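To: structure desk
From: M.T.
Subject: fold request, one chain
Message: Could you run this one when you get a chance? Sequence is below, nothing fancy, just the single chain.
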Amino acid sequence: MHLEGTNDFMKTVTVNLTRVADKGVAMGRSEEGKNIFLPFGAPGDIVRARLTKEKKRFAEGFIEEILTPSPKRRAPRCRHFTRCGGCSWQHLEYQTQLAGKAASFEGFTRSRLGIPPAEAEGIFLPPIPSPLEYGYRNRATLQISGDRVGFALPSSHRIFSLEECPVLSPAVEKRAVTAAQNPHLLKGLERLLLQVDSEGKCWAVATGRIDASKKVELLAALDLEALYLGDGTNKPAIIAGDAGRMTFAGEDGVEVKVTPGGFVQANEGVNSALRELVKRLSAHYTGEEVLDLYSGAGNFTLPMAKAAKRVRAVEGYSPAVEDLILSAKEMKLDNIEALSSPVEVFLSKGETSALPRPSFVLIDPPRAGAPGLAPKIASLGAEIILYISCSPPTLIRDIAAFREEGYHLSGVGAADMFPQTAHLEAFALLTRTSVDSGELLTFGSQSG
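Reply: Done. Structure tokens follow.
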């Protein structure tokens, strides 16, 4: 039998692919009944596959030949598809992508949390689709090595030279391609972050060293509002152009303004849907105390403050806190208390026990989630917790921790922040008492 990590033998099997699986692969069964995971497959394909890893219960490999193509296949839009490593599903119709990713997320969640099939119907919410299949991504981080400018290949330090990237918004794609075509302007740099706001203005944050004589030329070549230099941790310093803040205007009329280099959701359409989800819950925090953990520049803080008695927003990246304070002043919202502190430090301080009990807590952490914080958050006594996550595995880990603290999982769902890719945003509604998610959201919608 072939052993993992060796290449002296690779077994060939025929596989009937049946569904989308996690990590950007399709799954099916071999004629021997073993689960097979293959990249770039489609539900309904019958393929001949060559296995590269075989275990007792499953195997992995690659498609050698498509014997019968699935009717759900379509032509990929990008010439780099299957080679750059960024996208997994351009060969699938979008509804198949969305349904497959949501079903995979549901299966993973039910398995990890031990949710019986009889309970699943009332817990799992329909997935949130992206309004745009392509052209949705408002930022890109280009890697630079000599004359190569593009994206880092998976599990490699090599850089894939960029010629096009249709998942980027047209404004970002145009500038990214221009940068890749002019590597001499980027000499000495390691990375270049491009960000476009709702007004179509573009800023760039460079990491590394830049030739002083190239700053103005780079600014003009990429048609930037400003060029900043940063290290990813501190507030970037402007080195060319006019200082300003990016403006992200939501359908709810709220404008979030962010210093270039700061975090914003990459897909504004899906972010608007998540803000609408928060609004549908507004009856549960109208006139009440709210705690917003990992608040960033106020993506959820500002809209919640329009209804809440007070919102305490906690964020460890100080430039984002400064942005939130300025936006609150511009919106004339005096019921926001913005705290510059790592969330774990804030929760460990004794004074949290003296704060008014929040009725609603929103958690939107980075990929690492909120490890070990469930007991401290639960001790605040909020009736409802809305947890938004860019990492389903850490979300499920933290849901389990909240359940141990007495919270019920009343609703959970997927949000397709990154169409064409294997990545997925997810959210969970946790309540002190067992409530059906439909009842929870309907109540919020009617009263908000």
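Reply (cont.): The two ends are 61 Å apart (CA to CA). Let me know if you need anything else for the meeting.
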